[in-house]
């Protein structure tokens, strides 16, 4: 996902997760609130509807973040913007952990469905359609927004939740690199469909969304290729990442932060052979987590299994 934190306003911190609101959200909110004057009798209800959308997206993204932390991943930032939200999650590189981190977001929308449906039936039984038409229309709009977000997010188009769930399921069968490769190609096909839809219904938002998805599919494809090349490299016995239990590759794939020269950190015990800089931690090329060198040392038997 592209970084959206630049130009974002920090709203609050909950459960160790910072919530940011991108500046463009305010512009789109002003446009949407003022552009729907026929739906309600006053702009106040338009505002409440847009705030409701904000709350639904926020809960969805918190579902991702909290689930990621539950499986031992890192998640401390959420950014909301006009096209939805981005939870910056970094689950452990396991298909099950990734699957739960992604699926938890749509499950929030699933949990909201019976609640909103019950409120809708209650408003009908209480006669709100006639006595409080604005409140009744708001409940209907919120129900429809939640369902629409759920259905759209579950489309099997990377990087939407449905595409990432499909990737996680394929990961169990064909591995990390191939699963990402397959879902990005499906994502490219989905982009073609979204562009056609945007042209057909003359929707600027679908056009912008198509560009966003296309960009992420391209980045996903490049990442998949890198993972495929990485998976073919010979591995060093006697060491394994404490997080993903993968043995490190042989070769100068680490770059010194001082002299920018590549070197094999396991061959030199985390000391740059060019400038003698010692590094406290070594990053895993497979999962990206950094750990002290002594945490990597394992028996030959364990390393061979990696």
Across the major sheet, the strand order is 1-2-3-4
Label the structural class.
Answer: alpha+beta
Q: Please give the count of helices.
A: 10
Low-confidence segments, ≥5 residues, pLDDT <50? 300-306
Beta-strand percentage range: 5-15%
Number of strands: 8
Overall 3D form: elongated
Q: Indicate the mean pLDDT.
A: 88
Q: What is the helix/strand order?
A: EEHHEEHHHHHHEEEEHH
**Domain module tally:** 3
Largest sheet: 4 strands, mixed
> Helical percent range?
55-70%
How much is the radius of gyration in Å? Answer: 23 Å
Q: Calculate the terminal CA-CA distance, rounded to whole Å.
A: 29 Å
Overview of this structure, please?
The protein is α+β, with helices and mostly antiparallel strands and 306 residues long. It has three domains: 154 residues, no CATH class; 77 residues; 71 residues, no CATH class. Helix content is 57%, strand content 12%. It has ten helices and eight strands. A four-stranded mixed sheet has the order 1-2-3-4. α7 packs antiparallel against α8. The chain is elongated. 32% of the residues are buried. The C terminus is likely disordered.
Supply database-style keywords.
8 strands, 12% strand, disordered C terminus, alpha+beta, 10 helices, 3 domains, single chain
Write the layout of secondary structure elements.
Layout: E1 8-14, E2 17-22, H1 23-34, H2 43-70, E3 74-81, E4 84-90, H3 95-125, H4 128-131, H5 133-153, H6 161-174, H7 176-201, H8 204-231, E5 254-255, E6 262-263, E7 282-283, E8 290-291, H9 293-296, H10 300-305
Parallel strand pairs: 2-3
Antiparallel strand pairs: 1-2, 3-4, 5-6, 7-8
């Amino acid at each position: 996902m592209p970084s959206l934190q630049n130009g974002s306003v920090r709203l609050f911190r909950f459960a160790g997760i910072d919530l940011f609101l991108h500046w463009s959200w305010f512009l789109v909110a002003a446009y949407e609130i003022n552009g729907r004057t026929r739906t309600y009798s006053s702009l106040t209800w338009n505002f409440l509807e847009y705030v409701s959308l904000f709350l639904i997206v926020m809960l969805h993204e918190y579902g991702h973040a909290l689930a990621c932390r539950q499986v031992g991943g890192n998640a401390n930032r959420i950014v909301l913007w006009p096209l939805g939200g981005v939870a910056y999650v970094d689950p452990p590189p396991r298909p099950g952990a990734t699957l739960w981190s992604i699926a938890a977001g749509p499950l929030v929308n699933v949990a909201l469905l019976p609640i909103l449906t019950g409120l809708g039936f209650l408003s009908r039984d209480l006669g709100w359609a006639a006595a409080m038409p604005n409140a009744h229309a708001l409940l209907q709009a919120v129900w429809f927004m939640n369902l629409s977000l759920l259905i759209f997010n579950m489309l099997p188009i990377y990087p939407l939740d449905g595409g990432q769930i499909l990737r996680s399921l394929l990961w169990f069968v064909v591995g990390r690199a191939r699963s990402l490769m397959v879902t990005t190609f499906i994502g490219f096909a989905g982009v073609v469909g979204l562009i056609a839809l945007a042209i057909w219904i003359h929707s600027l938002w679908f056009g912008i969304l198509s560009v966003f998805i296309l960009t992420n599919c391209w980045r996903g494809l490049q990442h998949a290729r890198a993972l495929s090349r990485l998976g073919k490299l010979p591995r060093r016995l006697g060491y394994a990442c404490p997080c993903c239990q993968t043995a490190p590759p042989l070769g100068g794939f680490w770059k010194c932060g001082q002299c920018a020269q590549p070197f094999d950190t396991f061959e030199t015990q985390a000391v740059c052979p060019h400038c003698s800089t010692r590094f406290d931690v070594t990053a895993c090329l497979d999962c990206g987590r950094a750990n002290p060198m002594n945490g990597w040392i394992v028996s030959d038997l364990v390393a061979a299994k990696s």
